[in-house]
Model the fold of this input.
Amino acid sequence: MTNWKQGSVLGAAVLLGLLGLGEAVRIAIVRFALDDFRLYYAAAQVGLSHGFWRIYDAGLERAAVAALTPGGDWFPYLNPPPLAWLAAPFTLLPFTAAFAGWFLLMLIAVVAAALLAAPPEGRARLLFIGLGLGLFPTAWALGAGQVVPLLMLSLVASWRLLKAERQVLAGVVLAATVLKPQLALLVPFCLLAAGRPKVFLAWAGTAAVLAALSLASLGQDGVRQYLEALGGASIFFSERRWALTTFLGPAGIYAQAGAVTIALAAAFRHRSRGIEIPILAGVVGSVLASPYFNAPDFAILGAAGWIWARGDAFVGRAWLLGLAFLTVEFAQAIEIPVVTVEVAILLALVLVRPAAGPAQAPATA
Done:
């Protein structure tokens, strides 16, 4: 590619990233009374004031959220206890300052994930950052105060550690996805299917420790309230608008089981071709199998796209085109085409025959 073409692509990516960052700031300002961070902050307040076993008490949650953003809609806190623990230090700050600090932390996570995923060349790094920030779901996740950027960083960091054959540490890092488990729950299972048992065991051990600590902090009553909160989330359409059960009704459960099966089959089929496809299959399968999903959650697909682009240049370009399509559909708030693209990607992974020979080296630019 000639220098002027490279410069044009890089300039477009930088501009896209700046526009995405500006959109994230706009969303943060316009939707300040509706951001997700207020739910994390309120849950931490309830935990520190009344005990963490009551963080799923709907009455206490509603009162805490109303005090932070009067007039804003209330949604139940559905994340596991570790996210409330993570938000607890931010309660030392007034809510507005705490949100600004959280926004900065999530922005750093996105940039760090892009830098870890990118080739070492400076132009490629800027390209990955620009494409990452320019995706609409990423901008929405930042503006909404979502925790998704930390999961993006966890996913990419574990991939880098796996490339360095540090499977145990990769599994420990991947366990950070328990902060919002439905985004990448299948990834460790797909890595197991791809012949990476050490990363699976390290993930399972770390997740088990976090689960034990969570159960100890909640107790029997806290667990009961958590299950009630999960059961009541079905009344909030924004939590399930992209779920297969929304489109297929009761049959959607079988479709979700099928997504899990196909993701594992794709990981096993491509087990000799590296770890990029198993990770991608795990992310897409998790998205399709999840009963609850928000629009900012799709930012995790951006991280999977970075990883896949490094593993195979051709499919990486195709993946970016797919993400561009998803972005357009998000802007129009059309659900069915988005789910259709996800299903098509997952089916392609399991149907396309693995290339012969050893796995490719990571793409350089």
Summary: Residues 356-365 have pLDDT under 50 and may be disordered. DSSP finds 17 helices and no strands in the chain. The two ends are 11 Å apart (CA to CA). The CA atoms of residues 151 and 177 lie 5 Å apart.
